[in-house]
Amino acid sequence: MKRKASDSEEELDYLERGIKKLKRIFEGLPEPAFNLEDYMMLYTILYNIKSQPTYPVNEDPKQLYNKYKQVLEDYMPSKVLPSLREKHDEYDLLRELLKSWANHKFLVKFLSLVFLQLQAQGAYIP
User: Which parts of the sequence belong to the Cullin N-terminal domain (predicted)?
Assistant: First the structure.
């Protein structure tokens, strides 16, 4: 079955919303946790992207990997550093650093699992 452009646009929009949701969770903003259905939808979208050569982003296979990489690169300077700079007490600074490190590790793990299809299909070269 051939995918319609609107289907792929909706899936890419869902993928973008999923990444934004994850970032909002880390920022401590009110956001419901990911459930199994959310995770499976993200994984399925990435599978669809890599398995269908007519998918719009397949013109540049590294486009999604670059998006994944950008999320990780932006997280530290935009969220972690400002929150650390606000702390003046050593205890508060250490607590914030530990929280940020735990969030970063989870972000890397979560995105790595979701983007596993990119790795399996050889879409990125470390």
Answer: 35-118
Question: What whole-number distance in Å separates Cα of residue 68 and Cα of residue 116?
Answer: 11
DSSP letter at 19?
H
- Taking only the tens of pLDDT, the chain with its 126 residues reads 344 445 777 887 888 888 888 878 877 788 888 888 888 888 888 777 777 766 666 556 577 677 777 877 887 788 788 888 888 899 999 998 888 888 888 878 877 776 666 655 554 444
What CATH number corresponds to the domain at position 94?
1.20.1310
User: What is the residue range of 26's domain?
Assistant: 5-120
pTM for the full predicted model: 0.62
Residue with tokens 């793990």: 109
Residue 125 forms part of a structural domain: no
